[in-house]
Amino acid sequence: MKPRRSLVERAYHASLSLYPRPFRDRFGEEMHDFARLRINAARRGGTAAWTRETIALFADLVNGASMQWLTTLRERRREARAQPVIDALPRDNMDIISQDLRFALRALARRPAFAIVAALTLALGIGANTAIFSVVNAVLIRPLPYDHPDRVVIIWGTQGTQGNQGVVYADYVDWRQQNRSFEDIGAIRGQSVNLTGGTTPDRLTGAFVSASLLRVINTKMSRGRVFTEAETELATKAPVAIVSYESWVARFGSDPAILGRNVVINGTTFTVVGIAAPKTPVPLFAPTPDVFMPIGYYPNAHGLERGTRGISAVGRLKPGVTIEAAQRDLRAIERRLADAYPTTNAGTSAEVFSLKEYGVGPTRTRLYVILAAVAVVLLIACANVANLQLARGASRAREMSIRAALGAGRGRIAQQLLTENVVLSLVGGVAGLAFAFGMTKGLVTLIGPQLPIDQTTIAVDGPVLLFALVVSLATGILFGLPPAWKASRTDLTDMLRSRLTGGFGHLATRNTLVVVQLALSLALLASAGLLTRSLIALEHVDPGFDGDNLLTAQFRLPAAKYDSPEKIWSMFERTVTELRAIPGVQSAALVRASPLSGNGESYPVTIDGRAPVAASEAPSVQVNSITTEYFTAMHIPLLAGRDIAGTDRKGALPAVVVNKSLADKTWPNESPIGKRIKLGDDEWRTVIGVVGDARHFRLDEPQLLQAYVPHAQRPQIFTSIVVRTKGNPLDFVKAAREAIWRVDRDQPIWRFRSMQQDLDAVVTAPKTTMWLIGLFSVVALLVAAVGIYGVLSYTMTQRTQEVGIRIALGADARQVTRMVILEGSRLIGVAVLIGLLASLGAARLLRNQLYGVEPHDLVTFGAVTVVLAGVALLACYLPARRASRVDPMVALRSE
Amino acid sequence: MVQTDPSSQLPLTAVVLHILLALADGERHGYAIAQEIEGTTDGQVRMGPGTLYGSIQRMLGASLIEEAPQRRRAADDDERRRYYRMTSFGRRVLELELQRLAQVVRVARQKRLVRDPGVA
Fold first, then answer.
1. If DSSP codes are grouped into helix, strand and coil, which group holds residue A679?
2. From A278's CA, which of A554, A669, B83, B94 has a CA 20 to 30 Å away?
3. Is there a contact between B96 and B6 (Cβ–Cβ < 8 Å)?
4. What is the per-residue pLDDT across A69-95, written as a single tens digit (0 to 9) for each?
């Protein structure tokens, strides 16, 4: 409360300047005192009373001020009539400001071309900054929509040195009972679920939760109730469900009678007991899951057993407890659990993160990189407008000197110029806001899907408007200060004597500004260059499979209906047969986790005949279950041994195919065929073949050790399909869906995508960053080029006489051109030196965004230097050529 | 601009009347005036600093009130606080205004527009 109070007080104090000077001098202190007492009294009445009082106070202030002005003006008019003396001298600050504003508008209107160019430059800069800030605000600054969001944390398990692991349900139960740091801890597990009973089977996003989770995140309900503790306990679980407000509208037609009605989810009948409030925020979900069910119904067979990291845990810290303290608390509990259950809990522990940090952490660098780039563009634009102003300042020297002669002080003239610039930047800011609205929409479509938040919350709202205002004012002051400073330091007699040729003094400032512009542009260009090289490297990664003409999709069988491995496998087998029968399908297979889909699991590997190592020390292998024809369909080459065959089924020898990396690492000098390995706590499996390496989670991951086991020997309810087609794979969506429905007409199938879409999606985020930075750097380069062109043209105009004399004395056109270009080159040379240093700094910041290219990549730095120098020299050439064509007679006469 | 004829000030605006009433018991500072008025009118007349000091300025100009001379104040009092008190001219204006209002009430009561007999 305290900073808020002082802020209002300060605002009130500042607003008192709205009153006419005499009144303010006499009563200002007292009014301030009065307002302070009022606010203090209202504060005891709570936030609502405080807000009402604050509004009332300001309304009273504005009202009072306007009354006072009316009185004052009436009196003045009376006095003016009484003694008719022309009196244009301002009386107080309000007068000065309004006079300055009038002058500013008149000055800008006199040179509309300058005003429009400057305002547009600023509008683009401010608009782009505002648009990017609207994203930064929504993602990084705005607090999460929970009560006391700083106390909501996410808890991950750790295993040996590996962090970010899921949480074991049994551990969670112990944490809840034994901790002293949390108000409560909740369990959540997201999984898509099948809703049946409608015309076609439907897939919903589901959240399996504990009652405590809904309390931790303070879930608000539109209708009905939340789960009770007993309903979500494993022992006493009850089939109840809560639907999200959005799915209630979309799937249940906003029918209030849904409460108490039954729905069939994953083959189990649930009773709907509640409808959540609109846009209910749920950790790890964006948007809200369609349906909430008790955690006890989580369908994976071993999902909740001790030793299986099946859930995520979200906690609410007690007030005043730090994350570190909570972490120590949980670690102590984990140590006790490790003693009690050495087989499952040895080497495991827990880590606590703020939910906000967890959600936005990975996006933060990217957004800051983009924001920094766009801020640099604005800086360059500011330098340009300042340069334009300095040029105008020179030609307005006469105007200024006359005003000085009439008695305007230096401070007064500086203030006038500053006002002019702030007006200009505010005009730019308003136009920039119009840009920002458009650009924000574009940005949301461009990068919205890559953000960890609900993208509908990105908008130009209050804080963003404030940001735009502050940036506008700051830019106005930033580019207004150099001219104002110049004006205030110029000597009156000098100004009058030097006539219009004055202003050489500006040159140093103007050159500095140009050097800064060019250097900043170079840093931006270098960043864009590095990102481009990195993107090219990423796009040229060989995924190890052929992504063309591959269709993928996913489905999950309801565990209640498919309650034995035999039932699951028989469904899978018939599905593969149906898929292969589709005309135009060359090969088809099932795979538990298709590459780049985000799915996949890893287990520690044990090698037969080697000394056993602790689970936390063993190499981790990415394990996938596949049917026959998988490698054929994916075009993953078989390097040794044999592919999985139809005979590798339950009862036959447990088989496994390993990738080249696993084979080379484990059996460097011998054939792996016939060796035995164990994946996690699975049975021993004999290696029957070796295949090529393939990327799985990301393209820029270090090559994983991979193992493929036959689906038939270990069927699990979740699987994906991969179908190699003749022609566009997306033309086969309908046929593939119907093929699966011929096996089970209640089975929803989702995420139909071509593998090429998944491959493209991998590079989407880096590509967006690259395009944005690239765009900014091109804009920056153009603006800087205009800057150096402007300075040289201006210098040449000033030196027309000198050039004329040179030519009259026999200098030829080439020599004059060379002289001008040399002068430009000096600036460019200095700028390149500074710019390269700045680029090195920028590259260090970019380090984490780069793949396959060093931050100090010489090729990139060399190339962008050539580009920058080339464009800048071209900008120098135009004024140089004009100078070389000066007619000496005209030039000399012009004095 | 000292007014000599108190009746030239009538009728008083509600705010001015209330301020004079508040100062009838002695000198007060601005916030105390507002508090007093709010208290005696059961919160019906509530003024902010802008309204209050706008009126105070006019009342000072019309010599209805004046600033009380500086003197030692209680330890908890703020130094910059200024106290105002009614001038004798102000008191005469207030009395005239109250007589005028009493006359108004009397007329109203004769026409049976007011039932409350409690008002003096």
1. strand
2. A554
3. yes
4. 888 877 877 776 665 444 445 556 666
How far apart CA A224 and CA A274 sit, in angstroms, is 4
Q: State which H helix or E strand residue A587 sits in.
A: strand A585-591
Q: How far is CA A397 from the centre of its chain?
A: 47
B29: chain A residues, CB-CB within 8 Å? 30
Where does chain B have alpha helices with state H? 14-22, 30-40, 49-61, 88-110
Q: Quick one: B59 exposed, middle or buried, by C-beta within 10 A (0-12, 13-18, 19+)?
A: buried
Rounded CA-CA distance A512/A702 in Å is: 46
Average pLDDT, chain A: 84
User: Which amino acid is present at A23?
Assistant: F
Residue type, A227: F
Q: Which of A138-147, A255-264, A541-550 has the highest mean pLDDT?
A: A541-550
CA–CA dist B97, A851 (Å, integer) = 87
Omega before A84 within 30 of 0, i.e. cis: no
Dist CA A298 CA A191 (whole Å): 8
Cis peptide before B11 (omega within 30 of 0): yes
Decide if A447 contacts A132 (C-beta within 8 A): no
Shortest Cα distance, chain A CAs vs residue B86, angstroms:
18
The pair of structure tokens assigned to A449 is 């899907």
Q: Which residues of B touch A66 (CB under 8 A)?
A: none
Backbone angles phi and psi of A519, in degrees to 5: -65, -45
The 8-class DSSP code of residue A167 comes to: B
Contact A826, A873 (CB under 8 A): no
**A509 in Cβ contact with A358 (< 8 Å):** no
CA dihedral sign of residues B64, B67, B72, B78: positive
The Cβ of residue A217 has, within 10 Å, a number of other Cβ atoms equal to: 24
Residue A343 tokens read as: 């087989």
Is B80 in CB contact (< 8 Å) with chain A?
yes
Identify which of A701, A713, A555, A582 has the alpha carbon closest to the alpha carbon of residue A645.
Answer: A713
**Interchain pair B34, A57: CB under 8 A:** no
Helices (H), A83-159: 93-110, 112-136
DSSP class of A66: H
User: Could you give the CA distance from residue A745 to residue A571 in angstroms, rounded to a whole number?
Assistant: 12
**How many Å apart are CA A271 and CA A227, to the nearest integer?**
11
Ramachandran class of A503: left when φ > 0, alpha when ψ lies in -120 to 50, beta otherwise:
left
Residues of B in contact with A27 (CB under 8 A): 53, 56-57
Each residue of A803-816: pLDDT tens digit? 888 888 888 888 88
Q: Counting runs of H as helices and runs of E as strands, what totals does chain A give?
A: 27, 22
Cβ(A590)–Cβ(A674) under 8 Å?
no
Residues A656-701 pLDDT 10s: 999 999 999 999 989 999 999 999 888 999 999 999 999 998 888 8
One-character DSSP codes across A273-336: EEEEPTT--BTTBSS--SEEEEGGG--STTTTSTT---BEEEEEEPTT--HHHHHHHHHHHHHH
Strand partners, A291: A206, A243
Residues of B in contact with A38 (CB under 8 A): 31, 48-49
What is d(CA A622, CA A619) in angstroms, rounded to the nearest whole number? Answer: 10
User: First CA to last CA across chain A, in angstroms?
Assistant: 68
> What is the structure's pLDDT at A81?
67
Closest CA to A294 of A210, A172, A193, A191: A210
Q: Which of B31, B47, B54 lies closest to A33 in CB terms? A: B31
Q: Does B93 touch chain A (CB under 8 A)?
A: no
* Residue A194: exposure state from Cβ atoms within 10 A (0-12, 13-18, ≥19): buried
Q: What are the backbone angles phi and psi of residue A217, rounded to the nearest 5°?
A: -95, 5
Residue listed under structure tokens 């692991």: A165
